[in-house]
Design goal:
Elements lengths: L2 H14 L12 H10 L5 H14 L3 H6 L2 H8 L5 H18 L8 H4 L7 H12 L9 H10 L7 H11 L5 H14 L18 H8 L1
This protein binds iron/sulfur cluster (SF4).
Length: 213
Amino acid sequence: MKKADARKIVNLLKEAYPDATCSLDFKTPFQLVVAVMLSAQCTDERVNKTTPELFNRCKTIEDFANIDINKLEQIIHPCGFYKNKAKNIKLCAKQVLENFNGEVPHTMEELTSLAGVGRKSANVIMLEVFGIAEGIAVDTHAKRISNLTGLSKAKEPEKIEQDLIKTFPKDTLKDINHLFVWHGRNTCIARNPKCKLCPINKFCKHYLSLTKS
Ligand code: SF4
């Protein structure tokens, strides 16, 4: 796809979803780290219902490092995979305190050195906390839309991210994840995409194949 068409896609999605932003609630950088960890295999809505109690109990990074693991597991239980997530939250808090002077780091290399933080999470944290759009967080929506539209044939998020980075103009990278998430939730819905109403259907290989047959 030409960069000009990729920009058209961004503009059309921006028109359709002018309010597309991060839907996780947080007030501090470390709260976002925790919210992103909890959002793995869980909806943002569920995370936002769970974090108020957690953030009320853990006000500092030290609190996250020191919270009783059983209590932490109990609070985050609704988000699923609570044992692993609880272990990672505590370890990550310790690593931020010991390795980064209590400040959430802002580079991909540093962020991905933290327990429970992969490339997707690091991209979200870099963008939402530090305004750095170095890459694109490829979640389930971004993956599905990229495959359906033909923006990427790859299955692995890292490869899809590289395809998207090559395709979209640099100044649009900060918008792609939000727009794809909102598009995936509202129009390009996994089980029932509303292709006829889709603002980018003329650029979509899936739609073009449907209209040909
Ligand atoms: S045309 Fe259909 S499959 Fe393609 S992006 Fe739009 S909703 Fe998704």
